[in-house]
Structures are given as structure tokens and as C-alpha cells.
DNA sequence: TTAGTAAAAGACCTTTTTATCTTTTATTAT
DNA sequence: ATAATAAAAGATAAAAAGGTCTTTTACTAA
């Protein structure tokens, strides 16, 4: 549904929103270590996110990544569409090219309400709002020992 | 969430349950054509499904694939676990290695009820029951838009 | 018993995804 | 200025997923 790349991107952008600021920029390495993501891979993802104005960066000493107020207004869907090139959440769960209420796959009516919910959250909530909620709820952003096999 | 391989396997097994029988076995090619799946790839998947007794086959003229009564009692979860090597539906939506009510990822409480529902259906309903429902509801099993339906 | 059929087996190929490494460029503190 | 720092850029590599092809084996009907 989501690529590993977009999962990394979502988690690390939320992490930035929570922990970084214009005054306290963060390096790829420190973020990669914090959420347990391969740092050269994350560096590549961040390059892409900077280019499309989802996150910001400056080079040199005290440089690093952070979010501007503009960045904070982006959404998780923006991240997914940038990294995966499309919104795969919307694809049919069983792979049908054309799956809808009139032409439903065998699980369409189970999957549809879920998609509406998660899609709504990812589209209607800004990164900042999402990050605030994450903090308030004590949600976890660390992959920890993510299964690197499989 | 599901690999393409397991999607193919699920759809074609349901298709077999609906259209094949001990008296009317079906070839890989006819099934592959019907549901729009690459036939050499489906052949490989079917080999695997035969080996683990989810579907059955005989060689030679009038040979092909079909389901025994034993096969009909298998579940979609059996297919997924055989083809994907694990049940990826149960993985955390954002990739956390350990994601549960105490250690929730940012979307855990949205994803969890959906997983319960779809997992329940895939585990508690036999292939035969599922196929009957598919038939009754007129659900679609064809990957492409081309309606090959009756 | 033989010709034709269809699956089994296994080798092989391609593309995509994930991940790493090296060099260059921009920034800043001294 | 210069040395240190950290991201940008780009080349490369490893692994997984998806897909194809050829040969062998089993079965059946004429």
C-alpha cells in the first residue's frame, strides 16, 4: 500500500515537525538514528522533499533540516504523492483496475470505509496538526527493529 | 499490503471455486485470459498452491485445475500466507516493528478496526463460502476493465 | 502404443525498490 | 581566508518482485 520510502518520509517529516525548528535544525544522521532508518536512503528522500517544498534545509555548520510555516501546511498525502509518484492507498485492495460501487471487488465494501477514513486524515490534516496530535497521543514514530528481511 | 502474486492467487482461486469442478477442470491459460493475469506467472503460482493442497490439478488431456472438497475448506489467509510467506496484512501500516494499543503508530487506531474486519473475513470464511458470496453479490474477479463476465 | 495435451520443474530475464558511496557545493565560525 | 561542517548531486550496487521460456513428466484418447 505504501512503499517503505514513503513510510520513512512520513515518519521523519512528523519527527521534524515535532523536534526541529528554524533555530534547531537537525541532520539526516540524527534523524535516521532516532527513528531507525538507513541514513543514506533518508538523505535521498529528504533531497526530494526539499525540492518540492515539503521540508527545508540549509548547508554547513548548524545546518540541517527543519520545517517552515509554509512546510507545516503540507499534508501526508503530499508526501505520499511525491515519494510514491501516486497515491497507492486509493488502489483496489485486490488489484482490480476498475473497482467501485458498481463494479466491486470481493472486499470493496469492507475496504472503502477504511480508505475514506485514512485518506481523509492524510488529506485534511496539515503536517503540523498531525504532529501535534501525535505528540498529544504519545504515538510512536520509531521503526525500531524494522524487519529488514522480508 | 498484498503482493501482486497473492492478489492473482486469491482471484484465480475464487474463480476456480466458481467455475471449475472435478468434471470440468480448467487450464492456466483459460483462467489467465479470463481474469487478465500473465499466464506463465499464474502457472508458477498454481504450482505452489497445488503443492500445499489449496488447489488441485491433473496433467494431460482434459486435465487442468480444480478444487476438491478439501480444497474448498481452505481460506484466503492460507493463500496469502503461502504466497507471501507471511501475512503482511497484519504489519503496521507505517512500518513500525512493534505497533499495538500500548505502542501505537500515528494511525494505529484507524487501521486496527479495518484489519480486524478484513482479517476476520479472510480467516473465518472458507474459499467455498467466499466464492458463493462473490457469486451472489456479483463481485468482480477480473483485473482489467474489460468485462468478460458471463 | 503412440500422439497430443497440460501441468511440473527449473533456468532465466527485467524492472522496481531499497540502499550505499563518493564527490561537490554551500555555509559558518574562527 | 580557511577549516570544518552538512546538504546536494550523482553514480553504483544489492535485493526483491514480477514475468518469461524451455524442457520434462504425467495422463488420456484414439
Q: Which segments of chain A are poorly predicted (pLDDT under 50) over 5 or more consecutive residues? A: 145-150
How helix-rich are the residues of chain A, as a percent range?
40-55%
* Beta-strand segment tally of chain A: 2
How far is the first residue's CA from the last residue's CA of chain A? 15 Å
Main structural class of chain A? mainly alpha
User: From N to C, what is the helix and strand string of chain A?
Assistant: HHHEEHHHH
Q: Considering the protein shown, what is the CATH homologous superfamily of the domain at 4-85 and 126-137 in chain A?
A: Winged helix-like DNA-binding domain superfamily/Winged helix DNA-binding domain
Strand order, biggest sheet of chain A? 1-2
Main sheet attributes: strand count, strand direction, barrel closure of chain A: 2 strands, antiparallel
* Protein chains sharing the most extensive interface: A-B, 42 and 41 residues
Mean pLDDT of chain A: 94
Which architecture name of the domain at 4-85 and 126-137 in chain A does CATH use? Orthogonal Bundle
**What characteristic shape of chain A results from the CA principal axes?**
elongated
Q: What does the oligomeric state look like here?
A: homodimer
Number of helices of chain A: 7
* Topology-level CATH name of the domain at 4-85 and 126-137 in chain A: Arc Repressor Mutant, subunit A
